[in-house]
Amino acid sequence: MKVKKLIALGIAIMVGVTAILLSAPILSLEAAQGSDQKALDPGKSFFLYTFTDGAVYSFINGTPTLLLQTGVIQLTYGGSSLYENLTVNGPAYVGHPTNFSYTQLFKESTTLVSGSSFGQAFINNLARSSGSIDAVDGSFGVVSSPLNYPYHVSYSGDNQTVLHYSSAMGYTQPFVLDLNDFNESGPSVNYPYGNYYCYDYVGSTNVLVSMHLVAGTLGISTFLEQLLGFTNVNKPVIKVTNFNMQLIGTNTVLSPLDLGHYLGKYLFIVIVVWIGGLLYMATTIHMARKRTKPGKGAK
Asked: What is the pLDDT of residues 193-247, one digit of tens each?
């Protein structure tokens, strides 16, 4: 075989192996998403959220009372409506004061208007280009660059349905909405530890994947007032600290994928293949030329 053909064949093989290795993780994710919705489908698309460390202070007999709560929200997209199933779980409370009622496990089903300020915190069509100014939660936020790490859920529970829908989310690269003027006693300058929402999208529609809110002494979030107000406690929320919410599962394919994660998954193997392939070709070509080189005594 001529040297040029040998080089062309070797490069073609390495390119083929590289293409297979780089595309395999994405193809595997697409296979896992096979039955998922490729667009928002009213009545079918759902989003499962968990929230933790919602430190809720309510005035009870004139005293601010801290209730560390956790919860789960299942949100089903209905077009002009959002159907919310909410469960809030609080700590056991002993010694109820006068005029105070508390439910340790609170459940509620509500129909929300998609265009309401509360509903738009979850699903909206806000501008997503860097530098855009959007209004969410009664505050103005500025769209910043995407997260410098991919959004991914590592679900370790026993629910096989949640396990499927969390793993099928893959690794995405949401954009960040910094709430720079969030109503709190101090500035939100410690990104990513300040106040921000993170969104992926389905087509032109943004979908909340995570949020973090820190309220100061006087801070209060309109979103949290509506989410937690008068749920477990028959008193209003007056301030919150360190509230986190994460999307842990959905049957709807979210974008954009973090291509760096997927393309880099087998990058080391690709480098080894190319180094090994080039060394092998160089050795083979050298041997081939050595065999075809005429001897010194040839005439």
From this structure: 467 899 999 988 999 999 887 755 445 677 877 887 767 777 666 666 678 899 9
Q: Do 135 and 147 touch, CB atoms closer than 8 A?
A: no
Element (H or E) spanning 196, and its range?
strand 196-202
275: which 2 tokens?
A: 């180094």
**pLDDT of 82-109, one tens digit each?**
999 999 887 776 666 666 677 788 888 9
On whether the CB atoms of residues 103 and 110 are closer than 8 A, the answer is: no
Q: Where do the H-state alpha helices sit in 202-264?
A: 222-228, 259-263
| Amino acid residing at 48 | L
Q: Are 21 and 263 in contact (CB under 8 A)?
A: no
DSSP annotation of 204: T
Please count the other Cβ atoms lying within 10 Å of the Cβ belonging to residue 176: 21
Instruction: Find, among 251, 97, 122, 115, the residue nearest to 197 by Cα.
Output: 122
CA atoms of 93 and 101, how far apart (whole Å): 10
Do the beta carbons of residue 73 and residue 88 sit within 8 Å? Answer: no
Asked if residue 195 lies in contact with residue 178, where contact means CB atoms within 8 angstroms, the answer is yes
| DSSP H or E run through 120 | helix 117-122
